Amino acid sequence: MHTLGDMTKSLNRSAFYLHGLQTRFELPILEGSGYSDAYLAFLRAITFLRMLNVSEESLRDVWRLEKKLLQLLHVDSTGSPTWFLDACAQTADLSHRLLLTNHDMGIKLSPLMIQLGLDFGHALPEFFPGEDMGEDVMRVLGEYMKLYTRIQSDVKTEVPLMRDATRWAARVK
Questions:
Q1: Which of 35, 85, 89, 171 is the most exposed place for a label (fewest CB within 10 A)?
Q2: Enclosing domain of residue 36
């Protein structure tokens, strides 16, 4: 278990910065050494993705979609206040896991797993919004995969520059 101070040292970020992430991502703020390895792993993933020039807005959108997926799949039934973070420290089968929650979906996640944007006809408009009728897991997963694919592309573009910067930084040490 970790304190906020432990996490600031581990991530080399101020308590103010981490508190801002907790607020913007609507994470529970815990007392003392109440922060699990999974909680730290989540903050580390956010920090790394921000270093790779992924916008915080995109990360919050992915976070929102992942939590919605997990709620639709009833993963939130554990009773834990950090149920959406509890898988973040897992390292097995990374290709089966969601980006931020790291929840194992049981299948390899790839943009090819779902055919996005297909419209086989004009559907009549619904009388009620999706949250009133029940969200569609496949629709939410489709939204998630679009955003995830864009983030993958952004990271792939940024990695060579980050490698060059790391090599260049050896001159500064």
A1: 171
A2: 4-118+131-159
Where b means 16+ CB within 10 Å and e means fewer, 75-86 reads beeeeeebbbbb
In a domain, 96, yes or no: yes
Classify residue 172: in a domain, yes or no: no
Q: Give the whole-angstrom CA distance, residue 3 versus residue 71.
A: 28
Give residue-wise pLDDT tens across range 67-106.
Answer: 998 888 888 777 788 888 988 888 887 788 899 998 888 7
Number of domains in the chain: 1
Looking at residue 66, its amino acid is: E
C-alpha to C-alpha distance for 95 and 115, rounded to whole angstroms: 19
**11-37 pLDDT tens trace:** 999 999 999 999 999 999 998 999 999
Residue 166, domain member (yes or no): no
Q: Is residue 123 assigned to a domain?
A: no
